[in-house]
Amino acid sequence: xxxxxxxxxxxxxxxxxxxxxxxxxxxxxxxxxxxxxxxxxxxxxxxxxxxxxxxxxxxxxxxxxxxxxxxxxxxxxxxxxxxxxxxxxxxxxxxxxxxxxxxxxxxxxxxxxxxxxxxxxxxxxxxxxxxxxxxxxxxxxxxxxxxxxxxxxxxxxxxxxxxxxxxxxxxxxxxxxxxxxxxxxxxxxxxxxxxxxxxxxxxxxxxxxxxxxxxxxxxxx
Length: 221
Prior knowledge:
By secondary structure, the protein is of the alpha+beta class. The protein has two domains: 5-49, no CATH class; 90-221, no CATH class. Helix content is 41%, strand content 21%. It has helices at residues 36-79, 116-131, 137-146, 157-164, 171-183, and strands at residues 5-7, 13-15, 18-22, 28-30, 92-95, 101-113, 184-197, 206-207. A four-stranded antiparallel β-sheet has the order 1-2-3-4, with no helix packed on it. The radius of gyration is 28 Å and the shape is flat. The model has no long low-confidence stretch (mean pLDDT 85).
C-alpha cells in the first residue's frame, strides 16, 4: 500500500503521517533535519507572498475598473454633445470640482526597430572612421551608447533619438539618420494611469503611488 502524499497548509508535505519539506532540488527532507532558521525563513516568505499575490490581484482589478470608469465618463460627456467615441481613448486628465484631485491617463507608443538600423549603424561607423580625430569623444560615446544592446536585447531608444537631433552637415550622416527614422516601427501602445492630490487648488501636486518602492502612508487628516 502506497503512503498518501498530502500538502500541509504551511508548505510541508505529509507522507504516511510524517512531515517533510521539499528542497530546491526537489528532494523530500524530513522536518527534523531542516534547520529552524530555514523553517522560519520559509514561513516568512510564504506569509509575505500570500499577501503580495492577493494585493497584486486587487491592483489588477483596480486597474481594469479605473480604465472602465474613465472610458464611461468620457463616453457620457461625449453623448451630451451628440458625439460617439469609439476605440481606445487618448491622453486625458480628469479633475475633481475643487481642483484637489486628478487622474491622468497617458498612452505611450511601443516602438521596435527594423533591419534599417543595421544599415544606419554601418553608415555611422563609416562617418566616425572618416572623421577620425575630428569626431569628439562625446559623439563617439553617444554613438556607442545608442547602438548598444542591453541584457534584455533592447536598443537604447533615448540615445538613438538624441543622436538624430545632432546637427551634422554630412551626407552620409544624414543617410544614417534617415535609416534610423525608417527603422522605427510602432507595434502597439500602452496605457498608463497616474493619480494626484493636493491640499488646495494652489498647492503643488503630490502623486498617489501604488508602486511598492515609492508607496507611503497617506498624511493624517
